[in-house]
Write a structure and sequence with these properties.
There is one protein chain. It contains three helices and eight strands; from the N terminus they run ββαβββαβαββ. A hairpin with a 6-residue loop joins β4 and β5. Strands 1-2-3-4-5-6-8-7 form an eight-stranded mixed sheet. It has one domain (14-163): Gcn5-related N-acetyltransferase (GNAT) (Aminopeptidase), CATH 3.40.630.30. The protein has 185 residues and is an alpha+beta fold. The longest helix has 15 residues, at 102-116.
């Protein structure tokens, strides 16, 4: 095993597991296989035929596995878009594995791991041409942020902590107002 991720997690090490998926640390070079390459192209826009976006040198890369089979990839960047945040910048499921909620499961497992590590804000970056991705992230409880924290041609989403109890809320909710008591005369 080689140390090849920004966090120093050895390649092949299980980083997180749950919900029927395993996230295993991987080299970005493993993202070059034909099925994963097509999944990455589809994550830009269905039918996109250019080159996939290059992962940042600081991105941590993970293979998403289910039942021992690679079903997709996930990439995160710590400190993006701000110092106490973590952003999911890559999330793609290979075509033959779509329709089983692997992306949603991987996102949930990632959130839980990052919250345990102390992340205070969770973001997801989706290329604007990826209508399926925009809708998916919205359905997972993230809301688009305008203006975006980084102007990079993508839509940035932030998790609404009120929707997920395991995420830290930026401000505690106000206590409920006292109910008036009925007084019989």
């Amino acid at each position: 095993m080689t140390d090849d991720t920004a966090s120093g997690t050895p390649s092949g090490t299980v980083w997180a597991r749950g919900e029927g998926v395993v996230l295993r640390a991987a080299k970005a070079a493993l993202f070059d296989g034909p099925a994963i390459r097509q999944a990455l192209l589809d994550s830009i826009e269905r039918g996109y035929s250019g080159d996939p976006e290059q992962l940042s040198a600081t991105a941590e890369c993970f293979l998403i596995e289910s039942a021992g089979e690679v079903v997709g990839v996930l990439g995160i960047e710590r400190g993006r878009p701000d110092s106490d945040a973590v952003a999911v910048t890559t999330l793609a499921i290979i075509r033959k594995s779509r329709g089983h909620a692997y992306a949603a499961r991987a996102l949930l497992v990632t959130e839980r791991r990052l919250v345990r590590e102390g992340a205070r804000a969770l973001w997801v970056r989706v290329p604007r041409g990826n209508g399926h991705g925009l809708y998916f992230v919205f359905r997972c409880g993230y809301a688009p942020v305008t203006p975006p924290p980084i102007e990079d041609g993508a839509t940035w989403f932030r998790r609404n902590p009120a929707l997920v109890p395991h995420l830290p809320a930026s401000t505690p909710p106000a206590p409920p107002a006292p109910r008036p008591r009925r007084v019989d005369a």
